Amino acid sequence: MGAASWLDVEPDSPYSIENIPFGIISKSSSSLTPTPAVAIGEYCISLKRLAEGNAFVEPPDIQPHLEVFTHAKTLNAFAGLGRPLHQSVRLYIRELFLDDTKYPHLLKDNAKLQNVTIHRLVDCTTHVPMQIGDYTDFYAGLNHAYNIGVLFRGPQNALPHGQILPQPGDAEPVHAPSRKLDIELELAAFLCKGNGSNGEPIAIAEAENYIFGYTLMNDWSARDIQAFEYVPLGPFGSKNFATTISSFVVLADALEPFRCNTMLPTSSHDALTKCKSVLPYLQEDAGKKSHYNIRLHVDLKPADQGHANQQGNGS
């Protein structure tokens, strides 16, 4: 049972008082430009209005940086402040919305500030939370590479060594819309800082301090086009036409209760069951809970074809 909030929050809401994800919103019924916000229950709270209404008078560490809320249209500037401040801000916002908050005068008992700060999510437009220059798509691990390989080469040749020639197919390609559009449900990470210089490695023990937060991501793929262009240098157009993410970023610290021990592969495939350890530069402290136990769920409803459901656990 989570902590109680004076804001009306459904018990099973994904935007609970223990989560408080960050995003960018605007009100369609006003001239409010895109501004940083957090989601709690069925509401979004404008961090710009909170800052302008002097609701951030208590935490001394955020006061010199309020422009990341009052003058920013993305979360990049806030992310760049680092994880200790991310944690401080999230916990302070949680404190403001607790039923027994230590600062009721700042918001709970301040109807005027509530009126300009708290909006229903359905009345708001969400925007891409971060300014994204580019990103690199890659295999996240052995399971990822194996599952993709099965799609094209079957389970016996899912993980080839070196380059191979594929079985001959159609003699001539045709230019046509994809008939095998697919999505991969993934967990995307936004970073809050980079390495010092190009090519400078980041130690595995320090890697988590570089993560701002996570969103759900759909990696869209045109599988039939991918199969044709995959060898020898692809994929190209089959993978770079669309990627979608969820509206709000769940801060890394919000996932701390879901840490778990490293999980070894469970597949019966020989290449996976033999993978009992990783190379030294990827090895973490013994006994450290370095994974997250997260349940991912997809609902598919093709037009006039009923309803399909897919779900799984991730770590």
Describe the overall structure:
With 315 residues, the protein is of the alpha+beta class. It folds into two domains: 106 residues, SH3 type barrels (Roll); 156 residues, Alpha-Beta Complex (Fumarylacetoacetate hydrolase, domain 2), CATH 3.90.850. Helices cover 19% and strands 22% of the residues. It is built from eight helices and 13 strands. The strands form four sheets. Strands 4-3-2-1-5 form a five-stranded antiparallel beta sheet. Strands 6, 7, 8 and 9 form a four-stranded antiparallel beta sheet that branches. The two termini are 24 Å apart. About 2% of the residues have low confidence.
Helix share of residues? 10-25%
- The total strand number stands at 13
What distance separates the N and C termini? Answer: 24 Å
Number of helices: 8
Radius of gyration, CA atoms, in whole angstroms = 23 Å
Shape by Cα distribution: globular
Strand content: 15-25%
The main pleated sheet reads as: 5 strands, antiparallel
At the fourth CATH level, what is the homologous superfamily of the largest domain? Fumarylacetoacetase-like, C-terminal domain
CATH class of the largest domain: Alpha Beta
What number of domains? 2
- Mean pLDDT, to the nearest integer, reads 82
| CATH domain fold name of the largest domain | Fumarylacetoacetate hydrolase, domain 2
Supply the CATH architecture of the largest domain: Alpha-Beta Complex
SSE run: EEEHHHHHEEHEEHEEEHEEE
Biggest β-sheet: strands ordered side by side in the sheet: 4-3-2-1-5
Class derived from helix and strand content? alpha+beta
